[in-house]
Design brief:
This protein is α+β, with helices and mostly antiparallel strands. It is built from three helices and four strands. 49% of the residues lie in helices and 19% in strands. The termini are far apart.
Length: 104
């Protein structure tokens, strides 16, 4: 893989990530044309892929949101989202059944 470590950027995102945790660093993966956040450790430094085309304040927000310290909140958000989807699916199914009954 072709990685380029990003030490300086226009919005100082690399430095701002270091202020969150000194072991964070950003690379640009030219094979995927994406920015990635890595964490300095012995093996498998990959943490996450930045879902934006540029490094900006959203990157900091995204990293903060996905930190392990926020796992309970993330799980709750996923659970709430799944409940809403399930309720919408049930409503759609009931509506579909009602239409078929009405058409019969």
């Amino acid at each position: 893989m072709n990685y380029q470590i990003i030490k300086n950027d226009i919005f100082n995102i690399a430095k701002r990530l270091k202020s969150i945790d000194k072991k964070y660093f950003i690379v640009f993966n030219s094979d995927r044309n994406k920015y990635e956040v890595h964490y300095a450790r012995a093996k498998n430094t990959y943490e996450l892929t930045i879902p934006y085309d540029t490094l900006d304040a959203r990157t900091i927000d995204f990293v903060l949101k996905t930190r392990i310290q926020n796992k309970q909140k993330i799980f709750e958000e996923i659970e709430n989202s799944n409940k809403k989807l399930e309720q919408q699916n049930i409503k759609n199914l009931i509506d579909k059944i009602d239409r078929r009954i009405y058409e019969s």
